[in-house]
Amino acid sequence: MKRLLLPLAFFLYFNALFTFENIPSTPAMRLVPKLSVEILLLIALLAAVKKLPPVARGLLAGLIFVATLVRYVDVTALGVLGRSFDLYGDFPHLHRVLAMFWEVMTPGLALLVLSVAAVGASVAVTLNWIGLGVLNRELPRYASAVALGVFVIPHSLRSEPVSVIVARQLGNLGTVASPEFASIEVETQRLDSNLYGLGSANVFLIFLESYGVTLLEDAHHFEAIAPRFEALEKHLSEAGYSFSSSQIQSPTFGGGSWRAHASLLSGFQAENEHLYNSLLASERKTLVHVMKARGYRTVAAEPGIKWYWPDGLFYGFDRIYDFDALDYQGPSMGWWKIPDQFTLYRIYKNEVAAAEGPLFAKFSLIMTHIPYYPVPPYVADWTRFDDGTAFQSGLASVAHDAYRDLMELSRWYVDAFRYEIDCLEGFLIDYVPENSLVIIVGDHQPPKLATHDNDSWAVPMHVLSKREDLVRAFDSLGFEPGLVPLRPSSLRMADFLEGFLDIYDVREAD
Asked: Which of 129, 138, 229, 474 could form a disulfide with 479 if both were Cys (CB 3.0 to 4.6 A apart)?
């Protein structure tokens, strides 16, 4: 009996590697009472081979380690991102996520992380090596019983094999490479609205990173943020604003902001990376082209773009203010470095204050991107950005070394949005011209690390203006007064362009 304890322990160890599941809304794992068919087949193979050659044993130990990582990514993605991992759509962006981590690490922390990863991988592979040797040596006599177990284990007790996970991802790649998928055509559309209803009003389209309906629908979020929304409504009303809101369906969840932006501006639902790439390769026009054709200067503020961005050429902006063009010289604010308040003010100084005609400006605000920390201090006097004194009151830099509890990201998420609301309120009241329409919209729900139990793909959209007629035009699209849209809507981001052009198309100018 004692002789069986060690092989039994390694059997349970290997089985756990191929059966663990995710603890929802966290990157943590949990053990479940299931069996892995692959591990049973592995044991049968080890018994049949009698003595596994050292080279084969080493390769098999490494393969098991890789298979464990594959399983971890697959079962954790749904719990962390809120959607399945897409090898085609997500993998090409993985290096940028790793780069963001690398940028905020001190050399010492980077060395520690690399050392822990290397040691962890070495220990895991070594443990696999030892376990394979034990099973190969001790369990030949039980090979037939193990093999029989493959056929008699009820399906409900079987864990999804890693081979099935790999086959699914390879199948997705195969689908993308298929002639049918490659022949997707993105049609050009008629964009003949005269937009007389706008009356040459400036249009500010502001995307808020990870602004999902979870902030309004989930009690643990809304109870914390509701007083700030109430104050915002009061202050905007006192400043002469009218405002209405609705929910709108994003084409993505937990990430992939670029697909949401592209869907709203083009009227094409880019719900996966291939459709997005097909859209960029097409001749389809965007809202930017429409506004430019109607005499608007068109600009975009993209503080998160730190690299060559050929996608920007598709939209047709007159100018794109990326990370370098914004020329922020202050202390770094987390992963993205540039605080959103500065981005809003820079565009005001460079474009709004200097405008000689109507302006269309798109903003991508990013301080609410995971990990929602650090939250920059709000600077009451925006002109302090002019002489570089904005953050000199006891703040030389913002470190990224605070303790981060992944189980409590929802609290940091709300804190980040309080800052965002402060920035928006200041911009709307002090820096948006009278004849303007402001559209504020989320790009997608935050990852499940912050949403916990909200699975909706909807995001809030708000329209605000001191011209009530501009706001009331959205009534026909289902918008209702207020800044807290709680009623679900079937409106998609891809529907926005057509709706926008229609509600401001006036055949006879007043």
From this structure: 474
Cα 446 from Cα 370, distance rounded (Å): 8
Measure the CA dihedral 465/468/473/475, to 10°.
100
Query: Which residues make beta-bridge pairs with 464?
Result: 243, 438
**Residue 102 Cα distances to 122, 173, 282, angstroms:** 22, 29, 35
b/e for 38-63, b at 16 or more Cβ within 10 A?
bbbbbbbbbbeeeebeeeebeebbee
Go through 323-358 and write b for each residue having 16 or more CB atoms within 10 A of its CB, e for each that does not. Answer: beebebebbbbbbbbbbbbbbbbbbbebbbeeeeeb
Q: What is the pLDDT of residues 269-284, one digit of tens each?
A: 998 888 898 899 888 9
User: What backbone torsions phi and psi does residue 320 show, to the nearest 5 degrees?
Assistant: -115, 120
> What residues contact 122, with CB distance under 8 A and at least 6 apart?
none
> Which tens digit of pLDDT belongs to each residue from 120-173?
999 999 999 999 988 888 766 655 556 556 556 776 778 888 888 888 888 766
pTM of the entire structure?
Answer: 0.85
Q: Torsions phi, psi of 488, nearest 5?
A: -60, 150
Q: Which two tokens stand for residue 110?
A: 């980077």
